[in-house]
Amino acid sequence: MFALIKWIVVKLAVVRLLWKLLGGLGLFLPLAFLLKLVGLPALMVLGVLALPLLFVLFIIGLPIFLVFAVGGVFLAFVFLALTLGLVALKVALFVVLPIWLVWQLARWIFKKPGDGKTPPPVADGGSGI
Question: Which of 40, 67, 69 is nearest to 54 (CA)?
Fold first, then answer.
């Protein structure tokens, strides 16, 4: 009887461990793909912007360490701009957009009947003309 209970407990522990591992994959795998989706284009933009600058600095004749230092500073500034832009986009998407949609919905629900662009119909007194 003790062996049966021990076998059931071990099986449940293995199932619980697998559930935790697969649950973690289910949570982190989409996040990894999202970061890959954002990170690779950001690296391409940085590369496209930095390579002409490095070539120009090489042509001017600056020492190699200075070229890489200036190129690194330029890359850092572009990456800073991309990061701040993504932060602003996230704030706009997840904070400003829902508040604006709720505001528009509330205005639409609670608007007065005479608030529209068309004027209300005028009663002419029944003259028939």
Answer: 67
